[in-house]
Amino acid sequence: MLPEFELLMPRTLPEALEMLAGRAPDGMPIAGGTNVIPDLRGGRYRPACLVNVAGLPELSGIRQEDGMLVIGGGVTVAEVLEDPLVARYAPVLREAARSLASPLVRNRATVAGNLANASPAADMAPPLLVLDAEVELASREGTRRVPLKDFFLGVRRTVRQPHELITAIRVPLPPATARARFFKVALRKADAIAVVNGAVRVDLGDSGFCQTARIALGAVAPTPIRAYEAERALEGHPLTPETIAQAARLAAEATRTIDDIRGSAAYRRHVTEVLVRRALEGLWSRE
Amino acid sequence: MQPKLITLTINGRTHQVALKPNVTLLHALRDLGYTDVKNGCEKGDCGACAVLLNGRAVNSCLVLAWQADGAEITTAAGLGTVDRPHPIQEALADSGGVQCGFCIPGIVVSAKALLDRNPNPTEEEIREAISGNLCRCTGYTLIVEGIRRIIESKNQ
Ligand SMILES: Cc1cc2nc3c(=O)[nH]c(=O)nc-3n(C[C@@H](O)[C@@H](O)[C@H](O)COP(=O)(O)OP(=O)(O)OC[C@H]3O[C@@H](n4cnc5c(N)ncnc54)[C@H](O)[C@@H]3O)c2cc1C
Ligand code: FES
Ligand code: FES
C-alpha cells in the first residue's frame, strides 16, 4: 500500500500553478510517477498532497521555435526517442533516451521529471548540458529561464521552488558543424542506472579548431556536472590524440566520485577518463 | 482521503469504480478481477504488471488509478485466452518460452507493443523491447525465439 496523500487533478496549466501555489510547500508535482511512486513506497518522502501534471495540454509536444528545440514539460522519454526533430537536431538526446530504463518506464517517465528529480545519474542531464539547454520554470507569478548548468544544487536539490513547474526544456539548435555523443556504463546493457554517464559536444567550425567544446558527466559528483577545465583544454585547439588525452584527464579530475553499490570511486574516475577519451575520438571517426 | 468515481475501460469493458487517490492501477485491475496482471515488485523493476494504457505498454504499478481515469487498458488476457490465444501467446507456448509463467503476461504486453509499432524487429530490438520484463526461469532465449517465430510465420 502507498501512504495516504491528497491528489489534485488540474486540467490546465494555470489551474495546476494555482494549486501548487495554494499548497506550497507541501504540494508535490507528479508526472510519470516513475520516481515518485517508488519513493513514496520506500518512504523517501511523504508529501501531504500530490498535484498531477501528466497530460496537461500546455506541457505536451516537441516543437521548433526561433532557433530553439522546445521540449514540453510533459514530454516522455519515449516521445523524445520517436521524435523526428530530436533525431535531426539532437541525436545525442536520443541516444541517452534509448539508454534510460526500459520501454515500459520510458512510456511514462518525463524529461522534466528526470531533471527535477535531480539524481546525480539522471540520463537526460548530460546530453542537455552539452546542448546548453535551459529549463523554463513557471509559477503563478510568471516564468523564468535557468541554464541547466545552474539548475542542480545537490543530490535531489535544484533551484526549482516548490510552487514552480518545469513547463519546457529549451535547446538552441546546434550548428551543422557540431557533433555530440552520449556514453554510459552500467551493470547491464538495458534498464540500469549509470555507474558513469556523460556526453561530449564539439563544434569544429570550418577551421579544424574547436570553437565550442562541452563535456558533461553524471554519477561522478552530487549533481550532473560540466567539466569546464577539460572543455577549455579543447577550445581553440584541433582535436588530436594529445588534446583529447589531456581533456579526458582533466574530465576525470573534475569528478568527485564516491563508492556505492554500483561501483567504487576509483573505478568511476578511471572509467570517466576512458569514456571521455573514446567519445571525443569517436566524434569524427565513426562515419 | 476521499474516494472518487473513475472510469476504466479494460479489455473493452467499461467499469466505474470508487477509488482512493493512493491506489495504483495495478491494484485497481487486480481488485476488479484482472489477475493476469501480476504483482512482482511494485517498483517498476520487473514488468510483470505491464498493461497497454491507451496503446502504450507501461508498468501499472507506477500509474495512479486516478491518472488512468477515462483510459483504455488492455491486459494480456484481453489479447487472448487459453481457448483463443493471441499469436504471441501461442508462439511463446509453442517455443517453450513459458516455464512458471509469472512473467509471461507482461512479456506478451511488451511484445504486442513492439509488434504494433515495428512488425519486423531484429533480435536486438526484441531484446530491447522486453528489457523491462524480468524472467527468473527461462534465460530469455526461448522467449526471444518465440517472438521471432511470429515474425517468421507472418513473413512466409
Ligand atoms: C525501473 C526504473 C528504472 C529507471 N532507470 C533509469 C535510468 O536508467 N536512467 C535514469 O536517468 N532514470 C531512470 N529511472 C528514473 C526515471 O524513470 C525518472 O527519473 C523519470 O525520468 C522521472 O520522470 P517522471 O515523469 O516519472 O517523474 P515523477 O516520478 O512523476 O517525478 C519526479 C520528480 O520530478 C518532479 N516533477 C515531475 N514533473 C515535473 C514538472 N513538470 N515540473 C517540476 N517538477 C516536476 C516531481 O515532483 C518529483 O520530484 C528509472 C526508474 C525506474 C522505475
Ligand atoms: S510489479 Fe510493476 S514492475 Fe514489478
Ligand atoms: S517463466 Fe518463470 S519468470 Fe518467466
Structure description:
The complex is a heterodimer of chains A (287) and B (156). Chain A has helices spanning 13-23, 36-42, 77-82, 84-89, 91-99, 103-106, 111-117, 125-130, 228-234, 241-253, 265-285; strands spanning 6-8, 27-30, 49-52, 62-65, 68-72, 134-139, 142-147, 152-154, 157-158, 165-172, 178-186, 194-203, 212-218, 225-226. Chain A is globular, with a radius of gyration of 19 Å. The relative contact order of chain A is 0.12. Chain A has three domains: 6-52, Uridine Diphospho-n-acetylenolpyruvylglucosamine Reductase, domain 2, CATH 3.30.43; 57-172, Uridine Diphospho-n-acetylenolpyruvylglucosamine Reductase, domain 3, CATH 3.30.465.10; 182-284, 2-Layer Sandwich (Enolase-like, domain 1). With 287 residues, chain A is an alpha+beta fold. Chain A is built from eleven helices and 14 strands. By secondary structure, chain B is an alpha+beta fold. Chain B has two domains: 4-78, Beta-grasp domain (Ubiquitin-like (UB roll)), CATH 3.10.20; 80-155, [2Fe-2S]-binding domain (DNA polymerase, domain 1). Helices cover 36% and strands 16% of the residues of chain B. Chain B is built from six helices and five strands. Chain B has a five-stranded mixed sheet, sandwiched between helices. Chain B starts with a strand and ends with a helix. Chains A and B meet through helix 2 and helix 6 of A and strand 4, helix 4 and helix 5 of B.
